[in-house]
What we know:
Blueprint (H helix, E strand, L loop, with lengths): L1 H23 L4 E6 L1 E2 L8 E2 L1 H13 L3 E2 L2 H10 L7 E7 L3 H14 L4 E4 L13 H9 L3 E4 L16 H23 L5 E3 L7 H10 L2 E3 L18 E2 L7 H8 L2 E2 L2 E9 L2 E3 L3 E3 L5 E6 L9 E4 L3 E2 L1 E5 L2 E5 L7 E10 L6 E11 L10
Helix pairs in contact: 6-7
Bound molecules: zinc ion.
Amino acid sequence: MRKARVAASSVKFFALLLSIVFASSAQAAVVILYHHVSSSTPKSTSISPAHFEAQMDYLARNDFKVVPLLELTETLRKGEPLPDKTVAITFDDSYASVYESAFPRLKKRGWPFTFFVNTDSIGTSKLFVSWDQLREMAKHGVTIANHTTQHNHLPRRKKDESIVQWRVRIASEINQAQTKIEQEIGTAPMIMAYPFGEYDIDVQQIAKKLGYIAFGQQSGALYEKVDLQSVPRFPFGGSFTELDDFIMKVNTKPLPTRSVSFYRDKNTEQKNLIVKAGDKPWLVLELDNAALLKKINCFATGQGAITVEVIDNKLWAQAKQPLNPGRTRYNCTAYAGEKGRFYWYTQQWLVTDRKGEWTYGD
Ligand SMILES: [Zn+2]
């Protein structure tokens, strides 16, 4: 009897030990995103060179490994665990300040980065890089990758455009950019970034069919089971340039989700991420570790904390206020048990007006 009790308690102890090891070994690679690195470009998409340097200094001083994005996408393709304290740096939109300001700074540190370019803009004005500048960057190890030709909102169908016509157009905006990069640079990896970070289920399917790993602009760390056509990145710029915010984000861990689904109301599942103004969609997360469910807090863009319920071992999160037209995000986080580290999952919704029309701009 006594022996059995000892055995039972050592099993318990072993399980506890395992859970501690498991919890602290959750791996976290993070992809960070910038647009302009400049003090004279539009504030909402810019970070000043001084703030940028401070962020890079933090990574260097704290032994973060800065790796090429393609190294992380290879790991994701194989479904292997990601390395901890690892960051890949990306830039979107073909801006000249990336060549003028970010490139020399990162070259000096010997750090790789990826530049997602919308090919139709290249060389068109002083705001954008030239193909010669991109070739020079590529020679120094910078990865030049696909951000489509025209930087359109991919999920939006034009008036009078059938779904088939829309699919053909979107595929061609992606394919043409890829061909152009191959011609000008000599090589183009099978990765892309959605313009404005906007995607829906149909856009994801097109990217998947064409063979791309595709990045959004929703926050979160990489996860070996992440959907390869909605890979998260942490955007920095505008009101997100301070070091404290950067430190918190590069130290996040992925919320280990087993399944993600969406509901119009508690009884009606919806398959897509496009909702109408006035809607309050539910985000439903099933987690690998159900013990985390009670620790999660969720927030919506412009609303602060939102409703969170645990039903049948799943987390149900819903905005308190009806959503307004635009991009809206639900951010769900939980303390990860290590100082300053949080599990993080973000879901983005694209919100039309009440009639289903797209009314918001960039
Ligand atoms: Zn862009």
